[in-house]
Amino acid sequence: MVCAMAAGRASNASVSVAARLRHWQRAISELVSMQQQRVLPSVVAYNASIGACGRLGRWAEASLLFFQMRELCTPPDVVSHNAAISACAKVHKWSESIQVLSEMEQSDLRPSVISYSAAISACEKARQWPR
Questions:
Q1: CB-based contact 27:48 (threshold 8 Å)
Q2: What is the pTM of this model?
Q3: What confidence tens digit (pLDDT) does each residue in 29-47 have?
Q4: Residue 29, C-beta contacts closer than 8 angstroms, at least 6 positions apart
Q5: What residues have CB less than 8 Å from 88, skipping those under 6 apart?
Q6: How far is Cα 17 from Cα 33, in angstroms, rounded to an integer?
Q7: Cα distance between residue 76 and residue 16, in whole Å
Q8: CA dist., res. 70 & res. 100, Å (int)
Q9: Is the dihedral angle over the CA atoms 53, 51, 71, 116 positive or is it negative?
């Protein structure tokens, strides 16, 4: 049991390092490897990967990871939602960013200033601001 926990921590750290270096493909590969080894990735590992994808305009991959979290029993937190909203905003996916914000509120999570700012940014970039 201790070895499995240590392996999980090492794998989570590896995902976070890859994400910080903007190696989104490596981060995703590490997540997949963890799942194959039956190690549950942490919310921090997912958040780092979603953030890395989002910063590089890989909104589809970020969204996939975000929705995958729930399926794998790793509930997204405020940071997860913010990273997903920001990923959508980066590529002007305003509708998707509003959807994630709405899901955040339905999950009884309290949106932060970052949540609202990222959603507003998505609307502004896509020119979907009410006139």
A1: yes
A2: 0.81
A3: 888 888 888 888 889 889 9
A4: none
A5: 54, 59, 62, 63, 94, 96, 97, 100, 118, 122
A6: 15
A7: 16
A8: 13
A9: negative
The two tokens of residue 54 are 């989002």
Structure tokens at 71: 């399926």
Residue with tokens 């929705």: 67
Under 8 Å between Cβ of 57 and 66? no
**The residue to which tokens 């780092």 are assigned:** 48
pLDDT digits 0-9 by tens, 117-127: 999 999 988 88
**18-19-21-24 Cα dihedral, nearest 10 degrees:** 90
CA atoms 55, 77, 61, 118: torsion sign: negative
CA dihedral sign, ordered 111, 113, 116, 118: negative
User: Can you state the angle between helices 94-106 and 113-125, rounded to 10 degrees?
Assistant: 160
Token pair for residue 3?
Answer: 């070895």
How long is the chain? 131
Query: Among the residues of 1-131, which ranges form H helices?
Result: 2-20, 24-36, 43-55, 59-71, 78-90, 94-106, 113-125
At 83, which amino acid appears?
A
